Amino acid sequence: METSYFKSYFFNNQKDLKILFSGKAVCDSLYSFGPAVRPNYIIHIVTKGKGRYQLDNESYEVTAGQGFIIPPDTRTFYQADKEDPWSYYWIGFEGDLAGFYLDALGCSGHHPVFQTENTERIIQIIEESFSEDQVSLFSELMLSARLYEFLALFKQATEHSITRGQLRNPHIREAIAYIRSYYATPMTIQSLAEALCLNRSYLSSIFKQEMGVTLQQYLTDHRLTRAAELLGLKNFSIDEIAEYSGYRDTLVFSKAFKRKYSVTPTAYRKAEYEKREQYNEKTVHRF
User: Does residue 154 sit in the same domain as residue 96?
Assistant: First the structure.
């Protein structure tokens, strides 16, 4: 169980960077969230206890005085420790420049866990966000200012990041960026290699060596992760979701999805909707 306070914000004027929600929680032993895929960035700041954060195939122990970032379109899971369950604050945001700022700050899916500095001020910023209303221009501007300050403080924190390390080979970074941009197209490993002006065998070899999975596995996982997000968030048909995820054959898509998630796309959507209804029925406890 999680005792939490959560607030959403619905301003639409800030296109470059805008706060979507903020919250805080005290978790019981082994309370978990996920696996889930989010459409936006979320940063958690752990203030007490410890827990485990899993991003893709990597797992991290996160303790008080540290934080972790949830990037969009990535499957994540996190769970409170059994003996010393954590408490944390979080802030969610999006915008045309959100990815740019986080990359510039040195944080990404390869820098998911970091030491926190100026923790008292970070907590104060989130607490102050709770008091803003939903309609005034003053509140919109104040929330925007707090988000920028939060990221400025976050810059100091990421200088002490605990990371998986930067990808050493620029060709791998280019391949990942290409997949994330064009996964919905009829891409093959050959067409990917040709787009990057590289030999297919060479690219496949260096990718497997550094990433630990084949290019095809990475492409498939990215497509199915995106599909899982769409199933949970959008009321598209299965045919549409298959196409939006890079599959032109719905049957092939359904078989691939079931291999990864052990359920059909339809069953997955039903389970996600039921989870959402259960969550909405819970009483939110204020601190």
Answer: yes
pLDDT in tens, 70-117: 888 788 899 999 999 999 999 988 887 787 777 666 555 556 887 787
CA distance 84 to 86: 6
Residue 77 near residue 32, CB atoms below 8 Å: yes
CATH code of the domain covering residue 183? 1.10.10.60
Distance CA 247, CA 258 (A): 14
Confidence (pTM)? 0.55
Domain boundary among 164, 179, 201: 164
Q: Residue 279 burial by CB count (10 A; 0-12/13-18/19+): exposed, middle or buried?
A: exposed
At residue 147, what is the residue type?
Answer: L
**Spatial separation of the C-alpha atoms in residues 132 and 235, rounded to whole Å:** 31
What is the Cα–Cα distance from 136 to 43, expressed in whole angstroms?
Answer: 25
Provide the residue range defining the domain that includes 271.
Answer: 170-275
Distance CA 123, CA 75 (A): 26
What is the spatial distance between Cα 164 and Cα 61, in angstroms, rounded to a whole number? 13
Residue 4 to residue 22: CA distance in whole angstroms: 11
Listed in sequence order, the residues at least 6 apart from 66 whose beta carbon sits closer than 8 Å to its beta carbon are: 46, 113, 114, 115, 116, 162
